[in-house]
Specification:
By secondary structure, this protein is of the alpha+beta class. It is built from 16 helices and eleven strands. 41% of the residues are buried.
Length: 522
């Protein structure tokens, strides 16, 4: 019995030993399999990163190292990247590159670089990138954001001719502007002795001036149409160059998600509805051969062309008009806002402007655009406002239309190009006082007005701003008329003025209030 048990015990011990050994072997096999899986997964991840890692094409401009998916997103402050653009230019030079997500972009800095690209090689650099939020908003129509081609050429030529025929630089346009200035003055008169936030007022006035050109009518400042469309423009301007727009442009996989940038598309649809109501009025009331405004001229052009296969059409007209309305409203109003911020906080400059205005307009009921030739200091101040305001700091993005070279670098067709206008408007060797608000930047030793070559707030080349002529006339007539009547000052209880702009498609100053006095009651 003892012998039997002993044999049985030894048998159990042997089985246990074998089981332990087999378990150890299985665990070793499991660990080996897990390690192999981990190595394969790591290898797959490395291969994925290798293939996804952004690479600069041969001969491409230098720039910071980019990450997969994000590109150089972490190199930029999404709220206001202008300091980052300046920092990168100091490190990499006048031409450098960034990756916006997986897509390479070339940034141009300084007057000589921007002129070389946008003027000397205009055809190669006059395209527009077509996969950005702002392009999706305009649905490939209009004139500002469409690519370089037949549609753009036809509509730009038509716009330039039509705007010129409607009196830009002529008395008829002056009368429209001066009539609107009278409406601007009403709320200012009501606020004499107190303060006013001018933001909505200047947007309304600028909107009405371009409305008269486009639609042949103006709107009361309390009219639901103008209140809503100005609000929609302002909201879209903030989104379109803010952080959500940057994320939309750089990470395509998030575009269908219910994120804040989708508000833009809703706003554009509402703008189209408002615009279509005006178009319907014109279609119902127009008489062929009679042109009251821009819409009538376009409809007349459609009648003459018939079905000629051109890019002209009613859908195109709607987005074309909204393009011009937005550009004509936002840029001028934000320039005025920035201008009065600086004039209030530089009272000696404001006073010298008023002295020149009084002297030049003595005995005249109102100013005319031709009076600018007798107002060198006023002209210098207006141009300095535009320079320091820097309303469109990165212009509108361009795109190369073919493989090309720039300053020794190779730039493939379809590359996004960002003209950094800030680098020109603040360029050290181009301005006497690049970092401060000083009208002497536009005056020679004799006190005559001079415009340096580096003054390009409207950009340069074939795609420069269509509305430059209208904007120049508006700024002169509005500023001269208001400064002749009122004194504007910084409210005593408002704290220190903040000149830091709010970055967007166009930059604007932070909201402020102005103290208003009648000059004849000081």
């Amino acid at each position: 019995m003892v012998h039997h048990v002993s044999i049985h015990g030894r048998s159990q011990l042997c089985c246990m030993a074998r089981s332990h050994k087999e378990g150890h072997t299985l665990r070793a096999v499991d660990r080996g399999g897990t390690m192999l899986s981990s190595l394969l997964l790591l290898g797959l991840l490395v291969c994925l990163l290798w293939f996804c890692w952004p690479r600069r094409p041969p001969g491409f401009p230098p720039g910071p190292v980019a990450l997969p998916v994000l590109g150089n997103l972490l190199n930029l402050n999404l709220t206001n990247p202008m300091k980052d653009f300046e920092r990168l230019a100091e490190r990499y030079g006048a031409v450098y590159s960034l990756f916006l997500g997986p897509n390479p972009a070339v940034v141009l800095n300084g007057i000589h670089t921007i002129k070389e690209a946008l003027v000397n090689q205009a055809a190669a650099f006059s395209g527009r990138p077509q996969d950005l939020l702002v392009n999706k908003m305009t649905q490939g129509k209009g004139v500002i954001l469409v690519d370089y081609g037949v549609q753009w050429k036809e509509h730009r030529r038509f716009a330039l001719t039509t705007l010129r025929n409607f009196g830009l630089g002529k008395q008829s346009m002056e009368e429209r502007i001066l009539a609107e200035v009278k409406h601007l003055m009403e709320p200012l008169e009501e606020s004499v002795g107190g303060t006013l936030n001018p933001q909505v007022l200047f947007h309304n006035g600028s909107s009405n001036i371009i409305c008269q050109v486009l639609f042949g009518k103006r709107f009361d400042y309390n009219d639901p149409f103008i209140k809503e469309i100005v609000h929609l423009y302002t909201e879209n301007a903030k989104i379109a160059n803010g952080p959500w727009s940057m994320l939309y442009d750089t990470i395509p996989m998030i575009r269908r998600l219910p994120l804040p940038f989708r508000k833009c598309f809703k706003n554009v649809r509402r703008c189209q509805e408002l615009g279509n109501s005006l178009l319907k009025e014109h279609l119902d009331s127009r008489r062929p051969g009679q042109t009251r405004d821009f819409l009538d001229c376009y409809l007349e052009e459609l009648d003459q062309r018939g079905d000629d296969g051109s890019s002209f059409g009613l859908e195109q007209l709607m987005m074309f008009s909204l393009d011009l309305h937005f550009a004509g409203t936002d840029t001028t109003s934000n320039t005025l806002l920035m201008g009065f911020l600086y004039l209030m906080t530089h009272p000696l400059i404001q006073e010298r402007c008023q002295q020149e205005i009084d002297c030049t307009l003595e005995g005249k009921e109102e100013a005319s655009f031709d009076d600018r030739h007798q107002m060198p200091y006023m002209q210098a101040v207006i141009h300095e406002i535009q320079r320091i305001a820097n309303i469109v700091p990165l212009s509108v993005f361009h795109c190369t239309t073919n493989d090309t070279k720039l300053l020794g670098y190779s730039i493939p067709k379809g590359t996004m190009v960002i003209p950094n206008l800030t680098s020109v408007l603040n360029e050290n060797n181009q301005w006497k006082f690049p970092a401060e608000f000083n009208p002497d930047n536009f005056l020679n030793e004799q006190g005559d007005f001079v415009k340096p070559e580096a003054f390009m707030p409207f950009s340069i080349g074939p795609r420069m701003c269509l509305g430059e002529g209208l904007a120049r006339m508006e700024l002169f007539l509005i500023l001269v008329t208001l400064l002749r009547r009122f004194k504007f000052s910084w409210p005593e209880d408002a704290g220190e003025p903040d000149y830091t702009p709010v970055f967007g498609v166009t930059t604007t100053p932070k909201p402020y209030r102005m103290h208003i006095q009648l000059r004849n009651q000081q």
